[in-house]
Specification:
This protein has 353 residues and is an alpha+beta fold. It is built from eight helices and 21 strands. It has two domains: 5-248, Beta Barrel (Thrombin, subunit H); 255-349, Roll (Pdz3 Domain), CATH 2.30.42.
Length: 353
């Protein structure tokens, strides 16, 4: 599970920006679309409302280049996107990367990375200007299964402006593992088409509010091809506290266990004669890590953390999102011979934080 984090030093502008502007006070140049019940009209209204605040992000390093999408969320230029957009699909943001933001009107700005969190596939970048068009954040918790949503992004980097797709919320609370190893949880699943270049763009309700950050089109494990008719977005309710921490200059560091986890499945349990067919198998322990200090051992299965049953990697990540380095919680594990073990563990800070 990726637990790395990269944060830049805070800026004067970051410290001065009131967080309320992100969540409760849209800029004067931002209006709310009103869902009318006419789907075609509602989608058109959403696009008209937000397109000025949805931007193309171009990233170039000495080794690679790529494009993605972002949403301006404050009038003074804070933009939310995916980690893998600014990291060009790598595990870190290259120090010499050049980030350029292009607005819908064609205006270009150099941008700097304020913070980038690999384990959450989330990044905040900043351009310098005032009275910029913004996209308002909504609530992913209020979404209903079957509700219509709109995805906007620079699919495949095609010229001529962003691509708009619409679909429904197929599920909430999904978990997937990205190619980087990051375990993403509490995702919004949709059949609105999400393609390369869409990454970092907004998933919107019919009020024109961000309910998710488009992040992935899953790969079929059998064919290796991108799965059709399914995509995922980071839920805005989960990411909002991290975004606010990065903008305020506080930074964000995920709690660190120091383990290499693997999700237990019935097939894995049968193959290796494991004492449980669910949970998280600890395949490696990092020396001198919190797990090592707590007496955890390789090949044990984590079954509960902080009072929450751990059935899979998604459950583990959800618990970690509620905590910070220095917190102490109780854990239950199954040893390889099936004995239950209870320990306390104090979360640390990842070595590369």
């Amino acid at each position: 599970m990726a637990e790395s984090t990269t944060t830049a030093a805070s800026t004067t502008a970051a410290a001065a920006q009131p967080l309320a502007a992100i969540t409760t006070a849209p800029a004067a140049n931002t209006s709310n679309a009103l869902a009318t019940g006419n789907l075609e009209g509602d989608v058109i209204n959403v696009v008209d409302q937000v397109k000025a605040g949805v931007v193309l992000i171009s990233v170039t390093s000495s080794q690679a280049s790529g494009v993605g999408t972002g949403s301006i969320i404050t009038p003074d230029g804070f933009i939310v996107t995916n980690f893998h957009v600014v990291a060009l699909g790598g595990t870190t943001v290259a120090p010499q990367s050049q980030v350029v933001v292009v607005l819908n009107n064609g205006k270009k700005y150099p941008a700097k990375v304020v913070g980038a969190i690999a384990s959450n596939d989330l990044a905040v970048i900043k351009i310098e200007d005032t009275n910029l068009p913004t996209v308002k954040m909504g609530s992913s918790g209020a979404l209903k299964i079957g509700e219509w949503v709109v995805a906007i992004g620079n699919a495949l980097g095609l010229p001529g402006g962003p691509t708009v797709t619409a679909g429904i919320v197929g599920a909430k609370g999904r978990s997937i593992q990205e190619p980087s190893g990051a375990q993403l949880v509490d995702l919004v699943q949709t059949n609105a088409q999400i393609n390369p270049g869409n990454s970092g763009g907004p998933l919107l309700n019919l009020k024109g509010e961000i309910v998710g950050i488009n992040t992935a089109a899953p790969v079929d494990p059998e064919s290796g091809a991108a799965a059709q008719g399914i995509g995922f977005a980071l839920s805005i309710d989960q990411t909002r506290p991290i975004i606010e921490a990065l903008i305020s200059g506080k930074g964000y560091s995920p709690p660190y266990l120091g383990i290499l986890p693997q999700e237990v499945t019935p097939g894995l349990a049968a193959r290796y004669n494991l004492p449980s067919d669910s949970g998280v198998l600890i395949t490696q322990i990092v020396p001198d890590s919190p797990a090592a200090k707590a007496g955890w051992t390789a090949n044990a299965i984590l079954t509960e953390l902080d009072g929450t049953p751990i059935n899979d990697l998604g459950d583990l990540q959800k618990v970690l999102l509620k905590h910070k380095p220095g917190d102490t919680v109780q854990a239950k594990l199954l040893t390889p011979d099936g004995q239950q073990k209870t320990t306390s563990i104090t979360f640390g800070t990842a070595p590369n934080s």
